[in-house]
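Q: Sequence in, structure out?
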Amino acid sequence: MNKNRFTGCFAFSGLLLMLLFPRSLYAQTVSGAGGYDYDGKAIVAILPFTGEEKAAADFDRAVVGAVINLQKYSSRAISTGTVEAAGVRVPTDMPPVRELAPGARYALTGGVYPGSYEGEYYLQLWLWDMGNSSMIYTDDLVYQNIDEGLQSLPGLVEWLFSHITEDTEESTSPPEKTWEDKLLAAGIRSGVSQRWYTASGETAPGAHALNFEGGIFLSVRLNSLFSIQAEADFTFDNLVYRGVTNAGGEGPYDPVFENEKYTIYSLMFPLLFKANFRFGNFRVAPLAGIYAFLPFGEASYRKNPAGEEDSFSHSVSVPLGYTAGFEAAMKFGPGSLVADIRYAGDFTATTIKDAAGTPPDDISYKRRMLSFTLGYAFGFIDVAKK
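A: Exactly. Output:
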């Protein structure tokens, strides 16, 4: 990179700039807000260069690509017609008026001038902070052949922009991109489920219990709003009936408190449809769907205080139910923390065959469930890359 070569009136201009802008030849901390495009890149307005007409036009076009190649900035070339329509002058060594660079974070001005020797020219560039209308840095390159000058131009542009430092306390960074789910997400969840059991002929639940619920899930992103989720959950039910009997039989009344407990294990397979609303690193999703469940093993039976134990077969005619609720997720580490609350209910009753108790021996019941679970999910396959 060549050193600055100011001649004649340009030496005086440089001295004047140092008096007006004491930090003009040093790296400055950028302050101010706005000036970013939708991709979060700072917008740079490039105003028409002055001086030798053809060379200025060649450098003007080339500097647009040089700025884009820095990959941190978005070029916005301001045409000569736009400047003429605005009716204002484009000063090269003074901050451009905001009307010429609306919405820009930075601006580049420049000019091509004769050098100190025959056939020598130099390109002078000024980089401006449009947040506070101050100069960030200025430098030039000296050339004799326009092709050599164009080859050196990217280095000059990179050198100018290297003097930009962002002050995170004062400047407004581009808005953080909203969290986007991966194409697939898999995870685990577990928690508690408050359950109410309503037997045939009952108008209100005759038994209730707080049980465990947990399993694995796989979610598929359909689009930016909707997704579908399949689960396999392990759970169990404790059906407890309490009452008072007369231990004295035909003799004196001797009350004894008894309870009969049936424990039934099952697998549940929910299929859920979710609508996902994202706020930065948070996501809220109302959900609804159906589930199938598969009772397995036999229903174990225990009667206290006598300590009687037994087991009975059980079945359900249509093992389906409905569920609805809300899910909340937060980015955490390589994946996301997930919490949900759901209400669910069986469509048809589960029947315990030949159960102990007074006739009829069969016991049929439907479940109503309010569940709260916590989990963790990992995402797979980036949607943008896909």
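Residues 1-33, 168-172 have pLDDT under 50 and may be disordered.
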